Amino acid sequence: MGTLVGHVVPGSGFLLIGLWHLLNHIKLHSLNPNSYTTYAWFPTSILRYLELFLIMGGSTMSIAMELFIGPERHQPLDPDWTIPPNHLHNFEHSLISFSFFIYAAFALLFDYLKLKAREELTQLLSAIAFGQQLLLFHLHSADHLGVEGQYHLLLQVVVLVSLATTLLTIAFSRSFLISFVRSLSILFQGVWLIVMGFVLWTPGLVPKGCHMNSEDDHMVVRCTGDQALHRAKSLVNIQFSWFLVCITIFAMVLYLVLLRRFEKKVAEYRSLDKEDDGDGDGDGDGDDVEAQRKKLEESQSFIHMGKGLAPIDMER
User: Fold this and answer.
1) What are phi and psi of 313, to 5 degrees?
2) Which distant-in-sequence residues (6+ apart) come within 8 Å of 281 by Cβ?
3) Which of 1, 148, 203, 314 is deepest in the core (most CB within 10 A)?
4) Quick one: three-class SS letters along 39-97?
5) Which whole number is the average pLDDT over 38-57?
6) In which domain of life is the source organism classified (predicted)?
7) How far, in Å, CA of 84 to CA of 98, rounded?
8) For residues 222 and 35, is the Cβ–Cβ distance under 8 A?
């Protein structure tokens, strides 16, 4: 992960996952405003488990890159089968990927077996994966005291939001706002990882007064003095704030656009709910979780392959 590609590729995955979930949660809430229930992952019309397969595939590739493809000897251990200091971060990164692989694999299994508590257990596994990510980034073996450390500190804030909102969805599964913030935090993780990859490993983007230096087979950004370091960290903070503002504006506009698009469908589904419930209250309490999922899957106008937006499934 300690390269430009090592940040941009997983960052793109998180970005697409967050965007996919944002689109689906907005659509699901628009179509079912009274009976909305959150999901940890979403099926697609072309393949139900495509999102989970992509998570498992991406996690497997990440583990392979960290432990077998990236190292010069194509394995991360010394001849005496101990872990050398310069490969500790490879094991840490691979453990993060393995946590998300476990999440996706069990999410698929729980859904296949139709377990009653599959949604709660899947959200718990997702929270464990984010917790593992936060723990390993916080206790990272790499030197994160300088500019890179500031980027990782702010990344931990976003991961903490993902962890907290995932835990909250277990108790508040009908809260659209919690799911909305969770999706947005996952998207922000991706954006921030991509920014880190380009800024920390592109010489032309390194802050003034700082330079790239090779230490223990790892390129790090070093500054010439305290003033240059303070300026560089301040620029990172400003950068984070700007991206936060831009992503917030993007999310609000996206919500308004999609809500307007599905206004007609919302009215149609409300009418159907009244007929199905037979209680005349229009609350849609006859919709269980599986029925809501099928309704979403059947009405995927912007999710169909080859129509509108392509299915960017990954994380649930």
Assistant:
1) -75, 145
2) 274
3) 314
4) CCCCCCCCCCCHHHHHHHHHHHHHHHHHHHHCCCCCCCCCCCCCCCHHHHHHHHHHHHH
5) 92
6) Eukaryota
7) 21
8) no
Task: Give the pLDDT confidence score for residue 294 in this predicted structure.
Answer: 61
The alpha carbon torsion through 148, 152, 154, 158 (nearest 10 deg) reads 150
Report the Cα–Cα distance between both ends of the chain, in Å, rounded: 22
Rounded mean pLDDT of the chain? 84
- Report the pLDDT value the prediction gives residue 31, as an integer from 0 to 100: 84
DSSP 21: H
pLDDT tens column, 236-254:
999 999 999 999 999 999 9
Is residue 66 within 8 Å of residue 90, measured between CB atoms? Answer: yes
Q: How many residues does the chain have?
A: 316
- Residues 294 and 301 sit within 8 Å (Cβ to Cβ): no
Question: How many helices (H) and strands (E) would you count in the chain?
Answer: 9, 2
Taking the alpha carbons of 10, 13, 19, 21 in that order, is the dihedral positive or negative? negative
* DSSP calls for 216-249: TTEEEEEESSHHHHHHHHHHHHHHHHHHHHHHHH
